[in-house]
Specification:
- The protein has a two-stranded antiparallel ribbon with strand order 1-2.
- The N terminus is likely disordered.
- It is elongated, with a radius of gyration of 28 Å.
- The longest helix has 26 residues.
- The chain is mainly alpha-helical.
- Helix 1 packs across helix 2.
- The relative contact order is 0.05.
- It is 51% helix and 3% strand.
Length: 183
């Protein structure tokens, strides 16, 4: 039996430094000056727009082609929204279906670029609420696991291990989730 193939960390080249050096052997790859490589960087605009067009045709989304092509250009280069008029003027055929961002669109893009961690209050509230729910569920499951060792024998007696009582133990264990579902 052969051992699984191991790939050295040096062969995984997903990070690039600000100076353009790549790989874990680059002299400036100290973890502080690196960022994740954008997979769209190596594509020309023509390839990128063609891929988006193929995607919209495949998934019956041709009505959204203009906005998706603009989004792809911005995903490739976050400052591209500033140059859309220049791009359209330079090659009106290639960029014919590109969506021109409105003032609110540009403001939202600028806000996202300058405040990437600024979001609506609903997001942190949802995260906190889900975290509390997960903690409560963990406590409940922990208590049930410990209680299942003794309560069936104490409350039902020696017959608790006999067939026919599994449903009762199951209903008691599921009671918190059943009651939460009814709320």
């Amino acid at each position: 039996m052969s051992s699984p193939t191991k790939y050295p960390l040096e062969s995984v080249n997903l990070r690039t430094t600000r100076t353009g050096e790549t790989g874990s052997n680059s002299p400036r790859n100290d973890g502080r000056t690196t960022h994740t490589h954008n997979p769209l960087d190596n594509m020309s605009h023509a390839e990128l727009l063609k891929d988006v067009e193929d995607f919209t045709n495949k998934h019956n989304m041709t009505k959204k082609l203009d906005i998706l092509q603009t989004a792809a250009l911005i995903a490739q280069d976050p400052s591209a929204y500033r140059r859309i008029e220049e791009l359209k003027a330079a090659d009106p055929i290639l960029y014919a279906s590109i969506y021109m961002p409105t003032i609110p669109d540009v403001e939202a893009l600028q806000d996202e670029m300058h405040n990437p961690w600024h979001h609506k209050q609903q997001i942190p509230r949802t995260i906190i609420l889900c975290s509390i729910g997960a903690a409560v569920q963990g406590w409940d499951q922990n208590a049930l696991n410990g209680a299942n060792i003794s309560w069936p024998t104490v409350l039902i007696g020696k017959n608790a291990t006999m067939p026919g009582y599994e449903w009762l133990i199951g209903v008691v264990n599921a009671a918190p989730w059943i009651s939460a579902g009814l709320l």
